[in-house]
Amino acid sequence: MSTATTAGARAHARAQGGTVVECMPTLPAGDGLTWAETIPGGGYASKRLARGSTLQLTDVYGDACVSVLLFNADEPWERLNVADTVKVLWQAYVGAGHLLLSDQGRVLASVTAGAADRSDTFCGTSTLLSNTERYGDGSPQGPTPAGRELFTVAAAKHGLTRRDLPPSISFFQGLRVGDDGGFTWLGSAGPGATVELLAEMPVTVLLANVPHPLDPRPAYTCSAVRLKAWTGTPTAPTDDLWSRSPEGERAFLNTADYLTARGLA
């Protein structure tokens, strides 16, 4: 079908209406969902989520590796701090019950489901240089996009730039740190593995689904991840997670103080 004329271009565009594109969001989400989307390998997504929202990530085929960044949706200079998330809570392997802390000592989100042995707080995501050296291309529009480049594109949709991007946390591909400080890649959590994040304040979430930097396979290997989000309630002082550790409780109190002052709690 020729697209050289306006009529031809219109006919061609309308002919795509029945095409299923894996990376397209499902709109409206329906069934009580606020977000439903599938990100293919080499894809990205972003969304602003209300306080109390649950974001569920599912590794559909067993080869996803989703890197996650979180920002305070109202004041995006407050963002995920991986170092404090690890240091303050005395745990580098992020699984159910872990808190994702900002650089202000507040809880951006809590992990309510997910296996700690298939997460990574050390390596971040891939870069233009690393992917170009390994696969021949790392540009966001290329066949083997780097996570950092996809984050840059996603960030731009929310008025953020490359300099606003901190280190990320990734899920579904794990590693372990040995006594010598070296990394051992553990591979996939398997098809159907799920991670759930509960937004403890209004957040902007950026996601990049690309191969883990330590994945030893020579080919660019990364499969689809399914996203679902729905509204709910944030962690309350009566919930066990609130007071599970003194450091976590302090972070929740910091969050409550901030939200109350802004009329959000």
Automatic annotation (TrEMBL):
Record domain DUF1989: where: 37-203
Protein name: Urea carboxylase
Native source species: Paractinoplanes tereljensis
Highest taxon, organism lineage: Bacteria
InterPro entries: DUF1989, UAAP1
